[in-house]
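Contributing new records

If you add data, match the layout below exactly. Sequence lines come first and carry their own label; structure lines follow with theirs. Keep one chain per record. Anything else will be rejected by the validation script.
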Amino acid sequence: MAKTAKIAPVFLSAGIPDPKRNPKYISTADILAIREAVTALTLAVVPRGKLVFGGHPAISPLVYLAAKSVGGQNNVTIFQSNYFRGQVPEESRGFDRLIWTRKSGGREESLALMRRKMIASENFGFGIFIGGMEGIEEEWEMFEKRHPNGLAYPIASTGAASKILLRQKIKRSETVLRQQLLGEFVYGTLFRKLLGIV
């Protein structure tokens, strides 16, 4: 049996927009595509390398189930803020590598601290941004500053913040890449291309 090639650590920033919050995110969000993309990314990464993400009630269970299905739970690190300790889904507690960051003032301060620690936790080769709201946009900025040589991809076909990031961050001259990020819904194929998995 062929040995699985390793890849650089991957940072995942993903979320399902809350319909009660800013309509600019939910208006383009494709919830099914967000779920499929998160699952496909997990299945592509965890047999080959580390996947790091911040816990989100709609995302953590998807990552957990996909990683478990391929025996890759040890390659997943989930960050959670103590601010949300009472709201964490059971699947999040199932990860072997669950890192709690301290509560720092209110919600926004606690999230900012968690994001800084999470994005500094590895020498990431890739940042994958799926769906989401303003937190995904904030994590993109932090990722770019901390990992200037990392490749950051907004999966714009999932809509929401990732679609906004495509318009703002990916050069119009990169036509093929823009088309893939916006129009490719076969996420397993897309992630193999983006991550250089043969």
